[in-house]
Amino acid sequence: MTSPRRTFAIISHPDAGKTTLTEKLLYVGGAIHLAGEVKARGANRRARSDWMKIEQQRGISVTSSVMTFERDGITFNLLDTPGHEDFSEDTYRTLTAVDSAVMVIDAAKGIEPQTRKLFEVCRLRSVPIITFVNKVDREGRPPFELLDEIADVLALDVSPMNWPIGMGGEFEGVMDLATRRISRPEGDSRTFQGTVDEAPLSDRFAEEVELAEAGYAPFDGDAYRHGDLTPVYFGSALKDFGPAELISALAAHAPPPRPQPAEPAPVSPDDGEVTGFVFKVQANMDPQHRDRIAFMRLCSGTFKRGMKLTPTGHGKPIAVHSPILFFAQDREIADEAFPGDIIGIPNHGTLRVGDTLSERADVRFTGLPNFAPEILRRVALKDPTKTKQLRKALDDMAEEGVTQVFYPEIGSNWIIGVVGQLQLDVLISRLETEYKVAAALEPAPFDTARWVSAANPADLKAFTDLNRAAMAKDRDGNPVFLAKSAWEVGYVADRYPAVTFAATRER
Ligand code: G4P
Q1: CA angle, 246 as apex, 240 and 247 as ends, to 5°?
Q2: CATH classification at residue 421
Q3: pLDDT band at 488 (very low <50, low <70, confident <90, very high)
Q4: What pLDDT, on a 0 to 100 scale, did the predictor assign at position 56?
Q5: Is 463 exposed, middle or buried (CB count within 10 Å of its CB: 0-12, 13-18, 19+)?
Q6: How many whole angstroms separate alpha carbon 280 and alpha carbon 91?
Q7: Which ligand 1 atom sits closest to the C-alpha of 236?
Q8: What is its main location (predicted)?
Q9: Which of 61, 135, 478, 485 has the fewest Cβ atoms within 10 Å of its own Cβ atom?
Q10: What is the pLDDT of residues 318-375, one digit of tens each?
């Protein structure tokens, strides 16, 4: 028997405390022994590869990794999502590979823009969310205001699981609403060191707790797993209030690996044959070898090292001799993996984001989306004899999912699209080092893009004929409408009701 799996990610706005919480979760889970090792490991990894200089310069992590730990007989796979403002499609796609997420909110700030974007992707896939309101050891906004904001902005029922007894200078601990027990801060640093009591609350806090319990929905596991309700924990990652409770909550309530949407039929984790999909490809981990690691989420079957898997659509089976499981401290060679686990498969560019890998030939996972780019740029080649190399580079990177590329119907100015600024730097850096193409990015006359389709081909043709100057094709030849603004998308969509303007496209 294998242990149950919980495959999850942490979503947050930069600075809310994701790194600190990750560290504490790994610490509670026994995967690391000293807080601070997550950052140290990042620094080591950075030394490894050239183009990750960008990471170093900006002090951020471009790459998502996977951390695994075990507690109480459960295996937790924590998928890291890059947390900087300049996040990429990888951040979004990582969320297609998890079964649940923890949303970290800064108690002083509430829901911030990036939290909200990531939340929307979770909603697209009905990924259930546990909310962690962090930094209650500092002055924050009133807990009622925060709960109401989460409920309003995200349109979710909220269910407080515990209650902060004061914040900032007044912080006296956190009360578990089910047991009425209060975890208290100790010593000068006011960290949690294990002291829990049931001392009565002052009138003021007793009243708050009463209002909190009366005012919000009680926790309902099914509503949470359907993505309709979020349990809310208040705490402080830094001072150790909350991490252990979050792990217990994930163990008790978060869904185990779920059936995944696929053709011809959804794939259940109990299906005997091995299937999985690639949600991320990381190139050039080692510039000497030009190798790539494809990150595959295992959806069914027991994977064994050396197994032959076929990428649907490209035919040839590949033998997976050196799969990698990602542990907190090291990468280890995996002999076996189970549904919900992530496997790193080294390859030389054969595996693409969105690929299905399986023992059977007839399955294909669906629903791994491309997201409408939020930044579009025109690519200007410095040496016109390098057109061919540029096209190859742009196609390669589009296939890897690093950037999207659009070939306008009119003119020869290729347009690339990204969801985060950082991808632009990665693109230029890789064009130079990997493809020896010097290029610059210039402002494009467009601001966003939508994939267009229509039930009746004549409607699509009528639309594209009239808007030729704004039409392009993506890497796979799908028609794309390039718009000057989100407002224009709305305007045009109103005028052409028979045409669908999609902000995501399944790969
Ligand atoms: P991120 O990954 O979401 O960007 O956030 P990170 O964990 O790096 O935390 C951002 C800052 O917030 C850090 O401070 C961190 O120490 C602080 N922080 C995280 N959790 C808590 C908490 O529960 N309470 C308090 N008071 N602070 C918290 P920094 O000064 O920017 O970085 P550092 O130099 O301390 O690492």
Answers
A1: 100
A2: 3.30.70.3280
A3: very high
A4: 43
A5: buried
A6: 9
A7: 23
A8: cytoplasm
A9: 485
A10: 888 877 765 544 445 557 889 999 988 888 778 888 889 999 878 989 877 777 788 8
Residues 186 and 286 in one domain: no
Contact 353, 280 (CB under 8 A): yes
Pair 27, 154 in one domain: yes
Q: Are residues 267 and 245 in the same domain?
A: no
* Model-wide pTM > 0.95: no
134 among annotated binding-site residues: yes
Q: Which residues are near ligand 1 (CB < 6 Å)?
A: 12, 14-20, 83, 134-135, 137-138, 236-239
Burial 137-148 (b: 16+ CB within 10 A, else e): bbebeebeebbe
**Cα atoms found within 13 Å of the Cα of residue 302, Cβ hemisphere only:** 6
- Residues 357 and 376 placed together within one structural domain of the fold: no
Atom index in ligand 1 nearest the CA of residue 20 equals 7
Say what the pLDDT of residue 59 is. 36
19 is in an annotated binding site: yes
Give the 3-state secondary structure of residue 435: helix
Can you give the three-state secondary structure of 197-215, one letter per residue? ECCCCCHHHHHHHHHHHHH
Q: Of 488, 490, 453, 465, give the one whose Cα is nearest residue 376.
A: 488
**Token pair for residue 385?**
């004899």
- H/E element, 78: strand 74-79
**75, 221: one domain:** yes
Q: Which of 105, 238, 240, 241 has most ligand 1 atoms within 8 Å of its beta carbon, as the pocket-test mutant? A: 238
What does the mean pLDDT of the chain come to? 85
452 is in an annotated binding site: no
User: What is the residue with the minimal CA distance to atom 11 of ligand 1?
Assistant: 15
What total number of domains does the chain contain?
Answer: 3
DSSP-assigned letters across all residues of 43-76: HHHHHH-STTHHHHHHT---S--EEEEEETTEEE
Measured from the CA of 14, which atom of ligand 1 is nearest? Answer: 4
Residue 276's DSSP bridge partners are 298, 357
**What confidence tens digit (pLDDT) does each residue in 190-222 have?**
999 999 999 899 999 999 999 999 999 999 999
CB 274 within 8 A of CB 263: no
The pLDDT tens digits for 425-454 are 878 888 888 889 999 999 999 989 999 999
Looking at the structure, do residues 377 and 331 belong to the same domain, yes or no? no
Residue finishing a domain among 199, 225, 253: 253
Neighbours of 392 (CB within 10 A): 13
More confident position, 387 or 90: 387
Last residue of a domain, one of 365, 380, 401: 365
Residues 221 and 301 in one domain: no
Please give the ipTM for the structure prediction.
Answer: 0.97
* DSSP bridge pairs for 378: 415, 442
Length of the chain in residues, anyone? 507
Two tokens, residue 461: 């043709």
